[in-house]
Amino acid sequence: MRPLAARAVCIISAVLSAALLLVCAHGENDDEAVGDAVGAADADARELDIGVAADDTACDVKVLTDGAEKTYTALASGSSVTVTSADGTPIGSLYVIFDRVYGDWTLSGVDGEGKTHTVGCGGDMFLHEYVDVKGELGGEFASVTMTFAGGDVSLSELYAFSAGNVPDWVQIWKPPCARADLMLATTHVDDEQLFFAGVLPYYAGERGYAVQVVYFTDPFKYHDRPHEQLNGLWTVGVRNYPVCGDVVDEYSESLKDAYAIEGKHGLTKDDMVRFQVEMIRRFRPHVVVGHDFNGEYGHGQHMINCETLTEALPLAADASYDAESAEKYGVWDVPKTYIHLWGENEIVVDWDVPLDALGGRTAFEMTQEGFRCHKSQHWTWFYGWIYGKNGKTISKATDIKTYSPCKYGLYRTNVGVDTGEVADMFENIPQSYAEIDRAEMESMAAAEASKAAEESSRAESAREESRRVAEEEKERARAESAAQTPGSAETEQERGRGGCASAFAASGAVCVIAVSVAAVSAVGAKKKR
Q: DSSP letters along 376-430, please?
């Protein structure tokens, strides 16, 4: 290698080595930065001490931080509530507990440059609403303002947290299911934790199915029970927000009395059947679970829920019934319907098996935790029924002999009867909706990949054809060039020979001249002698 080239290579190598060291150092810094970011994202949020101020002087702001969901305060339409972090820590998220479902409201904050950031909230109409302040407002704010311009509002509690993962008790609800694997048609808030004990923790928590809870009655007759409802559902693993009907919650001891009571409130049996049909069509469940025909302990509203539900099953598949909901949701024939304590095609479900997703607890134990949220009902006989009494503790679902939460009957099916080999409500249901969606996505991806491969193959064939045509054109041009006339070729040869002759002639002339000069020079030399 030449000396200059060698020196150039050495210089280039030195530069590349230095660059590599810089890149490595930068990469290490990036890894540290990414690690710091991940650590921040994984950090637990801290509940903040907050100050609360309202521009409506009638608002008792003290109840908004008293930790009691059954207390509440009202604000007039257009009022605002400002939440301020006591120590100046930026508010990462808010958890708003309404006393009554509200609707659209706005959240705003002013940044360090005096610019106001605003975002709309409340669109899902959740009674318990989580707001990602940092993500939604796009910045850090030690103080934020809630404005309620859509009418009077009633609030129960306000919580604020720093950035990070909020505690598990903060409810971040998803909307009601677009399609439900299982629809539980319960009557009152707490029935889902009592007579259907085990169903929700197992199918929603352990199996991860899309579970939709539909309540026949309206819980907002009370101020505490709607909160107990949501807290209990969240505890047992339900994440899709529940739906409630318009039936007024009143006790009755027979079908006749129950229908008469609702009639006084303006609801007919047809209204209730139509509600059941709409719910079935809306959620398109694979499995529906309903109350005992005898109302478990004889509650008339349990009875009418069961009766109107079972009458709705064939109607939901009939496009001529309730054209409005048929047009909105389509019709649906429920594959399987189970009725509590139904004596035919009976299954006895084991809710006492420890489950991985529940941290080793059983579905029944999780339901017991769920019912603990229903504090307003702990004075009733239900408490002893699910936890035990007279010194005898209930620790398993099988300990309950009356109105057993383990016993169901397959009331209706279009996918065949249960074999009895497994006590699973989803026997003969081959896939959940999530599995169906996943299979469809995989099929679409495979189809797209096949299409891309075909297009690539066609493109390569086109390129190959283009190369072949180009080569043929080159060959044709060479052939045409070689096929020129012989005379033209001889002329070129002659030109070549002529050129050579001229060269020889010129050389000869030079030689003659050189000889002549030499001769003259010799003659001149002789004369001098």
A: GGTTSHHHHHHHEETTEE--SGGG--TT-TTEEEEEEESS----SSS--TTTT--
State how far Cα 158 lies from the chain centre: 26
Q: How crowded is residue 37: how many other Cβ atoms within 10 Å of its Cβ?
A: 10
Amino acid at 17: S
Cα separation of 302 and 246, whole Å?
A: 14
Report the distance separating Cα 22 and Cα 69, nearest Å.
Answer: 58
Q: Which helix (H) or strand (E) holds 472?
A: helix 433-482
The angle subtended at Cα 33 by Cα 28 and Cα 39, nearest 5°, is: 125
CA distance 451 to 291: 51
* Cβ atoms of residues 171 and 123 within 8 Å: no
The single residue listed with the structure tokens 């189809």 is 447
Residue 126, token pair as written in the block: 């959740």
Count of residues for the chain? 529
Identify the CA nearest to 334 among candidates 409, 410, 408, 405: 410
**DSSP secondary structure, 142-196, as one string:** SEEEEEE-SS-EEEEEEEEE-SSBPPTTS--PBPSPSS-SEEEEESSTTHHHHTT
CA atoms within 13 A on the CB side of 346: 10
First CA to last CA distance, the chain:
63
- In order along its 529 residues, the chain shows pLDDT tens digits of 444 444 444 444 443 444 444 434 444 444 444 444 444 556 999 999 999 999 999 999 999 999 999 999 999 999 999 999 999 999 999 999 999 999 999 999 999 889 999 999 999 999 999 999 999 999 889 999 999 999 999 999 999 999 999 999 999 999 999 999 999 999 999 999 999 999 999 999 999 999 999 999 999 999 999 999 999 999 999 999 999 999 999 999 999 999 999 999 999 999 999 999 999 999 999 999 999 999 999 999 999 999 999 999 999 999 999 999 999 999 999 999 999 999 999 999 999 999 999 999 999 999 999 999 999 999 999 999 999 999 999 999 999 999 999 999 999 999 999 998 889 999 999 999 999 999 989 999 999 999 999 999 999 999 998 999 999 889 888 888 888 756 554 454 545 454 444 444 444 443 333 334 344 344 344 444 4
Q: Is 22 helix (H, G, I), strand (E, B) or coil?
A: helix
Do β-strands 182-186 and 392-393 pair in parallel, antiparallel, or remain unpaired?
unpaired
